[in-house]
Design brief:
- The protein has 186 residues and is mostly helical.
- It has one domain (5-185).
- It contains 7 helices and no strands.
- The longest helix is centred in the last third of the chain and has 33 residues, at 120-152.
């Protein structure tokens, strides 16, 4: 029982912050998840020296965009497709998978490359090399999770759930990007 008190305390604090300051809370949460995901991907890939540039890029991206863009998208989605609409979940899923996800994936790949200090041309080349693979993988592997997120998760927690899914997605993306860089260097 005594172990649950700190957990209840942390959850209570988090939900209080989420209610009082939703955008800030989502941005900080996403930053932490992005940092953890990139750190884990570096460790899993066997990196002996931690790449601080990618760690900082993922953290910055999470703080500036990873919490805010989904926050505003899900708010828009709730207004664009109200619960009372026929096939509301299907319409929301289609909008997310076919409009938001392709745009967000492109922006993420480009912005992360730029935040890592790469020039525009290198970022665009990296985007061209990874975009279709990342997008189709997202459609293939994340659509069911996104359907569950839209259908059973309360709107207030959707960004958190997306960020938790994003933790594993960051590991996947980071490994794909590393593989691309290793292939180019050979």
């Amino acid at each position: 029982m005594s172990l649950s008190k700190p957990i209840i305390s942390v959850l209570s604090f988090y939900f209080g912050q989420l209610y009082e300051h939703p955008l800030r809370t989502k941005a900080v949460s996403c930053c932490m998840v992005a940092l953890a995901g990139n750190y884990a991907s570096q460790k899993i890939s066997g990196t002996k020296i931690l790449n601080i540039h990618t760690l900082a890029a993922y953290g910055t991206f999470g703080l500036l965009f990873g919490g805010s863009l989904p926050h505003f998208f899900y708010k828009f989605l709730e207004h664009a497709v109200p619960d009372e609409a026929s096939f509301a979940i299907a319409k929301r899923l289609i909008l997310e998978r076919l409009v938001y996800s392709p745009l967000y994936q492109a922006f993420s790949l480009y912005a992360l490359a730029r935040l890592e200090g790469k020039d525009h041309e290198t970022a665009v080349q990296q985007l061209k090399g990874l975009y279709w693979l990342v997008l189709t993988s997202s459609w293939k592997y994340l659509t069911i999770l996104q359907l569950l997120n839209l259908s059973v998760v309360p709107p207030m927690l959707r960004v958190l759930v997306v960020n938790l899914i994003g933790f594993f997605w960051i590991i996947y993306l980071a490994n794909k990007r590393r593989q691309q860089e290793l292939t180019k260097s050979k």
